[in-house]
């Protein structure tokens, strides 16, 4: 092959590679997507700066509840169009189950546009009463408290020992309805037709006892101890006589009297010669 043929072949090769090429057009909407992505990057930068600034402010200043959420929402709404008006507005995403912050107290009532507000159901009571199906029936009658109108007072026995006089008194439900009582009777000495008190009231001795229910014919008893005035200095004690015991039943304001001869006690203040025990079933 001669030189002329080689030159002709090289020209054909160069002509093949030198053919003009037509560029491909960009896909539809490519430029719009590029603009939206750029706008999203700008929004993220602005929100990041806002969060950092608010965090620094919160470190030194106390702000009302919901302030940060409202401000961030305003910024997001402002920059939601992408800054150039070509992109769709950004949406605020709220986690499921968490209502948006409004700055109101959790205890304040919320208005509803879709219907009437629901009334919260009452919390279950911690009462120890009967179940609902049992509470609908008639209430059981309550046993009344024992009073002087129900119980009759009498002296069961009296004895002298160790410088004191011990009197066992008895309360009997002779012909009344069942009643309950518990604790210490109030006891003092009295004299004369006007039942004037003599000396100090009785002090309590021993435990408070248990609640007693007295049906018809049943009785309860207690002990009254009266110390001998001879154990005290006469000038300071100032002994005086009495002819009856005044007894207040536990928890009652009315009193009953029991005549007892030969009672003596110190009339001076500060001398406790009288003691009483709690009621017990007899």
TrEMBL record:
Region of interest (Disordered), ranges: 1-29, 78-145, 184-209
UniProt keyword Transmembrane helix, yes or no: yes
UniProt keywords, alphabetically: Membrane, Transmembrane, Transmembrane helix
Extent of the signal sequence: none
Segments forming domain DUF4232: 146-278
InterPro entries listed in its UniProt record: DUF4232 (IPR025326)
Transmembrane segments: 46-68
Keyword Transmembrane helix (UniProt): yes
Biased composition (Acidic residues): 1-10
Bias (Low complexity) ranges: 116-130
Protein name according to UniProt: DUF4232 domain-containing protein
Species of the source: Streptomyces albus (strain ATCC 21838 / DSM 41398 / FERM P-419 / JCM 4703 / NBRC 107858)
């Amino acid at each position: 092959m001669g030189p002329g043929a080689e030159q002709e072949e090289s020209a054909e090769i160069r002509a093949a590679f030198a053919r003009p090429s037509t560029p491909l057009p960009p896909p539809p909407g490519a430029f719009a997507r590029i603009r939206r992505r750029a706008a999203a990057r700008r929004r993220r930068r602005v929100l990041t700066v806002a969060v950092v600034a608010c965090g620094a402010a919160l470190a030194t200043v106390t702000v009302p509840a919901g302030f940060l959420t409202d401000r961030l929402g305003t910024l997001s709404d402002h920059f939601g169009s992408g800054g150039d008006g070509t992109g769709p507005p950004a949406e605020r995403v709220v986690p499921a189950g968490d209502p948006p912050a409004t700055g109101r107290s959790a205890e304040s009532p919320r208005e509803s546009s879709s219907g009437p507000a629901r009334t919260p159901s009452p919390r279950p009571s911690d009462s120890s009463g009967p179940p609902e199906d049992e509470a609908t029936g008639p209430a059981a009658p309550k046993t009344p408290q024992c009073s002087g109108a129900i119980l009759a007072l009498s002296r069961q026995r009296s004895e002298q020992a160790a410088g004191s006089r011990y009197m066992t008194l008895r309360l009997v439900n002779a012909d009344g309805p069942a009643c309950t009582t518990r604790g210490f009777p109030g006891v003092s000495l009295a004299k004369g037709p006007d039942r004037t008190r003599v000396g100090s009231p009785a002090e309590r001795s021993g435990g408070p006892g248990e609640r007693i229910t007295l049906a018809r014919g049943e009785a309860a008893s207690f002990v009254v101890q009266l110390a001998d005035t001879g154990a005290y200095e006469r000038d300071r004690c100032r002994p005086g006589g009495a002819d009856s015991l005044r007894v207040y039943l536990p928890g009652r304001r009315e009193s009953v009297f029991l005549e007892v001869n030969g009672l003596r006690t110190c009339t001076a203040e500060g001398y406790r010669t009288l003691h009483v025990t709690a009621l017990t079933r007899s």
